[in-house]
Amino acid sequence: MPDTAVILGGAGFIASHLVDRLVAEGQNVVVLDNFCTGSRANLADHLAHPDRVRIIQQDVSEPFTAESLGLADAATVYQMASPASPVHYRRLSLETLTANALGTLGGLTLAQALHARFVLASTSEVYGDPEMSPQPETYWGRVNPIGERACYDEGKRFAEALTMEWHRRHQLDVRILRFFNCYGPRMQTEDGRVVPNFISQALAGEPLTVYGDGHQTRSFCYVSDEVDGIYRAATLPDLGGLVFNIGNPEEHTILEFAQIVAEVAGVPLTTVGKPLPPDDPTRRRPDIARARRLLGWEPEVSLRDGLLRTITEFRARPPA
Ligand code: UDP
Known about the structure:
Blueprint: E1 4-8, H1 13-24, E2 28-33, E3 53-57, H2 66-69, E4 76-79, H3 86-91, H4 93-114, E5 117-123, H5 150-170, E6 174-179, E7 182-183, H6 194-203, E8 208-211, E9 217-219, E10 221-222, H7 223-235, E11 242-246, E12 251-253, H8 254-265, E13 271-274, H9 289-295, H10 303-315
The structure holds uridine-5'-diphosphate (UDP).
The site of uridine-5'-diphosphate (UDP) has 15 residues, from helix 6 and strand 8.
């Protein structure tokens, strides 16, 4: 019998690419999603195969059990349910907090009941505005607990703490993965993050909106690399209780990134300044030594290749 994976938030951007990978690996997938930021369109390739990918409309902040979901078994429960772009988590601030608190509790409870492994999708945002670079998993972070990003940052930090307590108290096999600025096809045009904003603006012949002075840095990881890291961390044995940074250590300022997007899109660079959002981290770059050592993983897709694939998919979208 094929393994079954349950993915909370499985209709989201990264999670839907994980669904593709798990199905390709021969697994069956059960997706729980309330579609607040994810969409059925992200799972379009699977809609005709409900025996392989079952989609259940479920707000993970509301109660659910193996019985209520009609689930007899699962090998792995992935908690990927949360708005993840600053625009969406500001708009859905309370929903973000409850998805990360109650959704994670629901996922852990389900994993325990089914004797399944639990994988938490966390974020580089747990490091806040870091004092050190690159950021290793051992760094505790510098987060404003009452700021505008706290619903996401502290939501994820709570989810990590809860996950580790289930590991300690119940010996549940858990793995925590911190994602760093993943991008690729299926990102929503209106998601507000820098990658879809810059690509949409470049393709529309508009100036790219640079927030602040553009000297803040990010490190962008193409989604197929991200999913490969997730797959390895979720399926390799003897990793219970470990945390992994999953990201690309190549770091760019936002101004450099604007230049690269314009070049790959084949347009001259023009920019317009906008205010820096509150608590916007000044730098972000993963230390991936642990993932290299224990997962045998590192990103393979260059920024230009990944952007070309993403821009090609954006160009093929029907006009809004
Ligand atoms: N940013 C920008 N222009 C945009 C959107 C974002 O300059 O149109 C900046 C933002 O201020 C941040 C970086 O790009 O410094 C990455 O922002 P994003 O919203 O993609 O994600 P974050 O890494 O902040 O979670």
